[in-house]
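Q: What does the assembly look like in three dimensions?
Context provided by user:
Components: two
Sequences:
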Amino acid sequence: MSSLSIPHRPAAAGWPQRVLQVAAALLFVLAGALAASAQGGPLRLTITDPNIEPLPFAIAPFEAETAGAEGLASEITEVIAADLTGTGVFRRIPSSAFVSTPASFAQPVSYVDWRTINAQALITGAVAVNGEQVTVKFRLYDVFSGQELGSGQQLVGTTAGWRRMAHKVADQVYSRITGEGGYFDSRVVFVAETGPKDDRRKRLAIMDYDGANVQYLTDSASIVLAPRFSPNGDRVIYTSWDTGFPRIQAIDVGTVSRQTLPVQDGEMAFSPRFSSDGRSVIYSISTGGNTDIWRTDLPTGQHIRLTSAPSIETAPSLSPDGSRMVFESDRSGNQQLYVMPVGGGEPQRISFGEGRYGSPVWSPRGDMIAFTKQHAGRFHIGVMRTDGSEERLLTASFLDESPTWSPNGRVLMFTRETQGADGAPAIFSVDVSGRNLRRVPTPGPASDPSWGPLQP
Amino acid sequence: MMKFRSVVLLVVALAVAGCANRNAANTGAGTDFAVPPPANAAGSFDPSSPQYFSQTIGDRVLFEVDQFTLTGTARQVLDGQAQWLMTNGNYTAVIEGHADEQGTREYNLALGSRRANAVREYLVSQGVPAGRLQTVTFGKERPIAVCSDESCYRQNRRAVTVIASGALS
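A: Here is the predicted structure of the complete assembly.
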């Protein structure tokens, strides 16, 4: 897929630029009086604001520029809208409320028609299909400022990849309005489950972040669990029992070829994660009943032991710069979180609340650590600063675990399992403020999500 | 006398049902089971058979929540296991460590490893050659009881000694 910028739309011919600006300013004042939620200055939504109100936006049905592109144009429009409303910070104004619809993508928009319905942002676009090639153009308007927000863009891709093109447009819209990186054009690897609780079958699957395009990477002949993406999303590393014993395997997402990390006789290996450069893997080895954390450099095969204690040390996660590691340990008597320099040094305990803490994951922004907390018979997904301060619990249920961060560090997915003989897991998402809890659609029971990077 | 006999038959029926259940639960271990020989008229197995080991001696021990110390009951069972393994020196065993669903997935793998190892170390201390005993953890991946309360959890917090048919030559 390629993209290029479309220049800002020139001012309408014959109208002096200055007059337009003045007119826009007047309209803004009027509209501001009518719509309490309209803000002065350029459109900007601060998604970390705890009192955030969903921002109303309108998306004009994308225009079909070639014969037969109508269906795809309509589907792309809907995926963009679903991405934005799915964040919980955007509210779509239904097209039934529109005063007018742009006659074509090329024509100037009538801001007043969108102010009337209090659309703070307007998205317009066009879709052309030539054989397998799809061209998507879009513009984003700051309705109350009466100007484009960023420049129009054109994306070129294939019909098979049309959803990705829609996600790319939505990522652009989200980024321009929030100032945050996007996360819609990304994939999630997870464990797809079938069968009863006492004979559960598990296999690795990969899907778009919104549950579309599910593909299976392994069969269900042996248990697989806790997959993690490589930093660029080309490989997945996970724990497999296909030898009868837990071993770490890496699978190439494209070719589905697999490699097993060698271990010594009698060792069990699990909880693998790639380093941020993808060159090494950190994981646990359990031998003689004791579990510690190791690192293996993939090109050389060199193993380095990172922890050495008689307690359980597992579930490591590296900071984005690779210098530090958070992990769980029961050295204090029960499961707690610790941070230590990867180069060696004393682990510092960072979790001090009531209950037990596990499966820590360092945010891709570097600022927070997400974790699973178990307390008083309930499980929670929570976040804390990397020094353990400002702990906040985002969820509560019979069994919530295994958080994973969106590429922009603003949303978490996790596993939620229901209780009882018919209990089954599903993947949920929640934003980092605890709002917008949603179930991610999967074809059946699903667990252990790992959110991959934003795709190029 | 008639009453006593029917009780014995009931026990055998339960034992066979339990055996089938466990075989299903162990499919991930990659080990094969010998074909069960028919129980003899008295309702018991050949003392040198893996079925005698699993049904009469007992192939599993249970643990307290988040613990891997062996209880007195567990040691008694393991004493019987050790004796059988030393008598039947041509069998190897894989000790599976399991956890209940209260706990995170990877922690439970480490906990299962501790439980399996506790059994292995005890059997070795009783004279079983270490080279005949392997350990594997399944964490909370292979529950045998599926309800979400202590009556099931206690059955799932277990270490199971699985006799491998791949006997030493």
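Follow-up: The longest strand of chain A covers residues 121-130.
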